[in-house]
Fold:
Amino acid sequence: MPDPITHVLVPGTFDPITYGHVDVVRRARRICPQVTVAVAESLGKNGVGTTFSLDERVSLAREALLCEGLEDVQVVPFTGLLVDLAREVGAGAVVKGLRAMTDFEYELQQADLNYRLDADLESIFVMSSPQYGYLSSSVVRQIASFGGDVSEFVTPNVDAALKDRFKER
Structure:
């Protein structure tokens, strides 16, 4: 029988982290005693760069999780392959949130690739809580870029960072 999984990764770009992401992290923490949020560099996300730098996204995620009572969750930046990071930190699984069928198709492809690279790395999917099923970082960024109120979608530190980032528009 394989060893039980005691450490999981919750990877993503987190540009920026939203309450939907926080919900997935909280649920991963219920499943497993050790959770690491892995913030991907994602240089070419959707053909453009990210709104926030890697260091900013790591900092925003750390503060958001702390604000939400998840101080025992580690947040780390990473570049390269997720399977390499999992080996490096000793994580036995990846936890991803699913909002819709399109998320499932993309995440299934990623899980299949990860399996081919490391058959011991499990993929765990959690369904989005209904109140976050529509929520994505790109929607939050778009609303914020037009001066809209995103405070119900993100923690106060992220709300402030978005206002600051888009204030000149």
Remarks:
- The chain has a mean pLDDT of 94.
- The first helix runs from residue 19 to 31.
